[in-house]
């Protein structure tokens, strides 16, 4: 932390000395009152409404807005009365000062910025024939969905399984089956609220490779093809030739190529069947007026870093297995699924997401492995995920934990020259302390999530996806183990409504950041956040301009002292900003789950403003009036 109090004292002494000198000089030269000092636009009240983007200088007035005093506007900020040169003055009462800069005169870092607008939110709540009898009422569902919208979530990632659509009687896909019908209801409910669906294609890769165990499976028609020799939809016609060509291409240099032929032949057949199922699903959704299935996400954590990779010949190599145990199988399976989607004419109906690299704290995993093999066209959105943890969530150490990891994730895209051409999402993210699980009340974890959101802005990451916003009952489960309590996956920002309607306190910080940092094609801009961190500041600052032109400035104070902040823009924004503060030291969770309202207005800000941000707070200054 800066030695700000000592600096203030030195500055005070210098100012007093200069003032005495200037008074003497003025008495010699006489009093000249021919001119008055200029008045800045920040000291005056103007429109209460956001600017329409016109950058003509606004009309100026002489009185501060809302009865606030002139110290809120920093051109004429006079702190001479804040100091007392007596020996017993308590300088600890003075807020530490921090100068923050928004480089909006530069090109934006990112022009498709979506903030923290994605979360895992499964379709299970709509599975109304849950065998345990625990089913959300319509009122409970409406409440949870309204909170989803209010918290800025606009992309919901859900597990999907072909088990929901299989008809044992007819021996094929039935898109009117009970569970599938509930899935359509899930999609419609989200569509009515402007939320898109990120639909999983498979979950555990091991269910398809048969090399690594996986518990979340597809219907046996796909993953146990030997039990279903009949090819109901003709989707695997020619798969033997395809498998042989693929094996020859990918394993031409391996001595055991021939031994892999049967393995890849089976994976080709089953992957084409999975591709056909999702092709039919997309066409059925369209026919039913469902248009919000926007992304297909290929498997979850398909390839951890490992020392048991079957494709790395030298076990003594320090880099052995960095790409995971099944990287080539993953590539083969995904390409085969996509081949079927292309053959059926539905590939371009959605965007494609992967490789969903699991919890590797650097970018040198499956992500780099694929990019170095010139596979950039496989995905529109590239992903990896990370769960930062420190001994205590209230320690201001999360920047140092998160920043190098986020930078390492985008570096492989930069290395192959594709950083500007595709999106990158952190597809799972949540902060916690080392001695606490996800899903426990932790207001400081929510604050550190906002720190992570700011870092993502500054590193050019398009979106962060929460794991997850709400605890959710997984249909037909009653187990208590790991992250599950009585069948409820308990790792969210708020408990399941089966348990309580009162969110955990981290809900208020993550929701505030997500709500006002956009979800469409915003722009993120460089700030002096890195320089502040270099000087061990407790302040973190981010800047985004949303698609409608509104600005959002996020300031996190992760320290134990209040800070006076001075915010400067390269270019004037001429926009009214509304302040929302969530103070983790004073926030109380209630059943209303209301995010912080605006408590102060900065009218028609030109290129600077000043404020005091309290210790332990997430503060949003936004042109969005709401």
Shape: globular
Round the mean pLDDT to the nearest integer and report it: 83
Residue share in helices? 25-40%
Number of beta-strand segments: 25
- What spatial order of strands do you see in the largest sheet? 3-4-7-8-9-10-12-14
- Distance from N terminus to C terminus (CA atoms, Å) equals 35 Å
User: Any idea what the radius of gyration is?
Assistant: 28 Å
> Given the structure, what is the number of helices?
13
Question: In terms of structural class, how would the helical and strand content be classed?
Answer: alpha/beta
Strand residue content: 15-25%
What does this structure look like?
With about 625 residues, this protein is an alpha/beta fold. The chain has helices spanning about 5-30, 140-150, 180-190, 205-210, 220-225, 240-250, 260-285, 325-345, 365-370, 400-415, 445-460, 505-515, 530-535; strands at about 95-100, 110-115, 120, 155-160, 165, 170-175, 195-200, 295-300, 350-355, 380-385, 390, 425-430, 430-435, 465, 470-475, 485, 490, 520-525, 540-545, 550-555, 565-570, 575-585, 600-605, 610-615, 615-620. Strands 3-4-7-8-9-10-12-14 form an eight-stranded parallel β-barrel, surrounded by four helices. The protein is globular and about 75 Å long.
Give a summary of the structure in a few sentences.
The protein is 28% helix and 19% strand. The chain is of the alpha/beta class.
Q: How would you summarize the topology of this molecule?
A:
Layout: H1 4-29, E1 96-102, E2 110-113, E3 118-120, H2 138-150, E4 155-158, E5 166-167, E6 172-173, H3 178-192, E7 196-201, H4 206-209, H5 220-223, H6 239-250, H7 261-287, E8 293-298, H8 327-343, E9 351-357, H9 366-371, E10 381-386, E11 389-390, H10 398-415, E12 423-429, E13 432-433, H11 443-459, E14 463-466, E15 472-473, E16 484-485, E17 488-489, H12 506-516, E18 522-525, H13 529-534, E19 539-545, E20 551-557, E21 563-569, E22 575-583, E23 598-605, E24 608-613, E25 617-622
